[in-house]
Sequence to fold (244 residues):
Amino acid sequence: MNKKTITFIAAALAAVTLCSVVGWVLANRERPATAHFGILVDPSDSRLARCDALKTDLIEILASPNLTRHSRLQLYGTGDSSTHDEPVLLETFAIPLNIQALKTQNRAAGELNKFIEGVIYRCQQQGVKTRSPIVLGIKRMLDNLVVAGCKPQSGCVAYIQTDGQELSEPAINAALKGKMPRHPDTLPTIRNESIAIKICGFAQVIKTGQNSSPHNVSLAQAADTVWRGIFTNSESVTLKPHCQ
Fold:
């Protein structure tokens, strides 16, 4: 093998090595965080279910600074006996992002309204349910958001519409009635280190046989304590009495 051939082979190997290094760097460089979102609606017979109140949450989602073309919204409904209390993933929506690319404000507004009305319409298709497995619904939603890629820097948010009257978890049901367990460890916990939680609707209730007791300040405070306490990152939990 002459010197010219050896030089050519060495140059080729160097080029291949350089391409491999560049490829590895491009594949492993830090990508911008992508925000994903979840909405869980509890259509139980004990609450004033208002899917149109989702509009406020959807507008907030559209204003998220971490939206990318990969961002998605997962819409859930709580489960019942027909699903063994497992929540139902009603639909996954792509979030309109390239609104600025549309030539007119009317077309941009039309695209946003189409998204908002589509989510609300799908929410309204749920039937009223007599059970409220809220905790399981939240856990499944957050698990799916983590699988989708939610990390602490992603800006992911989970929205929950519920009256907070959990009936499927006995320990939580008792605690909501002011009978806090001696050992808080008996209450289930939900990991939410990478996802902010926004819950609304505790004050929007309808009297049923299962929640005939009137609310008072003591029960309201118990509900606040219990629901914040089940999340591992309670500082990222926001509670609003009404969904509006």
Notes: The chain is about 35% helix and 15% strand. The helical segments are 3-28, 54-62, 105-124, 134-148, 170-176, 217-229.
